[in-house]
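Is zinc ion placement plausible here? Inputs below.
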Amino acid sequence: MGKSKIATVRKKVELLDYTEITVYSDIVINNSSVTRLGQVGVKKDDKVYKKKPSNCNKCKSNRVVALEVLGACNKDNLFWICDDCEHLHLKYTGNYTEKMLEEGSKLWTNPNDWLDSTENIN
Ligand SMILES: [Zn+2]
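Reply from A.M.:
I modeled the complex. Tokens:
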């Protein structure tokens, strides 16, 4: 009986030990903000969590997972995201995250270039 209890706990931990992957444009919730951080709903001086927080600081859910933003931070996840309310938590300082988001946003700002090149081929 003790054994199966341990297995259950392990399974729950494993379920939350994954990384969600997104692109910058998919996490923008406020286009009118002048900063990239503001556009994804994060304040520059929000608390920084070097390690995954055990609870969401907004809704207190314990379902917090890593969030990688393609092109924004090649080596690691840039945020922690609450699986329940989608609140973003900083992993790095606001200034660093702002720079990384700027990098990530460049990859996706000119989708029309792709359309133009397709037109030229045809
Ligand atoms: Zn939450």
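Short version: The chain has a mean pLDDT of 83.
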